[in-house]
Request: fold
Amino acid sequence: MNPLLVSIGLWLCGLTVTFGNATLIDVLSSGSASVEKKAQACRELGEKGVKDAVPALAALLSDKALGAYARAGLERIPGPSPVAALRAALSTTEGAARDGVIQSLGALRDAESVSLLLPLAGTNKAALLALGRIATDECVAEVRQKLAEGAAGSETACLLVAEGLLKRGQRLRAITIYDALTRARIAEPYRVAATRGAIMTRQSVPFLLNKLKSRERAIRDVALLAIHSMPKSDELARGLHQALADADVPMRLRLIAALRVSNNKETVRVLSDQSKHESHEVRLAAIRAVGSLGGSQAVAVLLSVLERDGISVEELAVVESELRAQPGNDTDLALTAALQSAKSPKHRIRLVKLLGDRLSVSAKSLLLKQASDPDFAVSMAALRSVRRLVGVGDIPTLIALVKRTDRSDYRKAAGDALASACVDAKEGSDLQQALRASTDPEESMQWVRALTAMGDSSALYTIAKRADPAMIAQLARWANLDPLPVLFEIVESAQTTTAMRAAALTTCLQLLAKVSANSREDLVPDFRRAFRATNSHAHKLQLIAGLRNVQDPDGLQLLGGFLNDDSVRDEAALAFVQAAWPMAQAGAGTALIAASLAKLPKIEDRGYRQKVAMLKAALIQGR
Reply:
């Protein structure tokens, strides 16, 4: 295919066309090419480094629209000819175009143009900045002279000179320039930049610390920021420690932040002193900084803060957060030791909660011991903390704790821990024995909760014999459908009380709904059995809620039976369309669905109407 036709086709489609070098050069001199095409040609010639394009690009340097593109192209072409063309353009351009040419010479660091730029530096800021970028000895002298004269742009030119000297490894000369800037009467931003350059170039701790004492906040701030880029050293840390002594609160906060990145073995002790400062903000900053440093010394300081009388709510929250975040078993051991020696109930409760939050397995025995403490608040905190730590081996201890008192809240907390321990247990003969022996309903409930968490099916008849609706309701937490046979016996027995029957049927329906939402096993026989026993409005709604997840024609037929019941007709219809849709897609139960569609009520629900329409469409398509 003709390449020209391809190019024309791409151009008509608005796509970028890449021409050969000769064609690109022709575009620059073309009288018909658009500014956009010429700008694109400048870019491509520069990217390709086409030396033959230098004359054509140089011819555009005075062009207001294309001059910048031409300069950018020349800057990217290697060799002496582009720079020579730019030098020559100094005498043929004027105004903004000449300033642009000067900028390009500076960007190219062209030493041969210095003699041409020096005469311009007194009146042309672009020339002065270009000299700063080129940074030869002549440039350095000229730029420093202009700084002394207060010439516009001399501050920036000096900064550029220092940067250039550093790149060439002339560190001491760069420092001289930076120092001259810091002493000059120039605007604050330039002195700040020079100060940072002087600090970073010297890498001198005494110099940095001296700047921290400046009366100017901006200078102090840049010195503080420079700390983050300085090598960590013992000398710098000691200097920061000393600076804290005379610092006001805002400066003290900044110094504490700096100690997070530049510190030594004495820093934690210094921060410990700051954690007692009269300023609330300083105390908080010091606590956070101690936590960030970490280690056994930091943990000891945090524990001492935790024990202080009169500690504020915010400080308490911060120190607890920092202690929770400290890694390693050593921290757990330190917290355990602190708990063993703690006297104040308030302090012991804090330590107990921290050990629980850290899931400190090594502290489990101590926490179980604290659960028997005479101080009720301590024992309650210990029960709550130990809940996620206990296991099968702790069941006897937890059984004893449940029996320890008749206080309902304590029993409930002990029962929570016991149920947690029973999750991985295989059999609960001790719990069944305790349940049979118990005459206290609240205590008995804890044994039922534990047996339910364990899932010990052998305990179901023991639980049922208690004939307690609340205990039967607890079986809804069972992980599977094992309780159903026992529950249905209760529901269908003529000797069952009304309350027990209602509780058993409710629990049956809860278990079926829970399993049907996550399983595809055949639950229709169980739902049908529950259907026969259902007569209350609440149980009907429960049954409908469970059947909406059963994708089976027989289950759908049970739902259809409620379409004639005015008390639950709308709920049944909503459940029916949800259950029927996947079946209609699979071509199952179509006759039943078609027969039931006529019975569906009109409900002002957009989603419902859409599903009904989709069902009808699916049935038509299936035919």
The chain has 39 helices and no strands. Residues 1-18 have pLDDT under 50 and may be disordered.
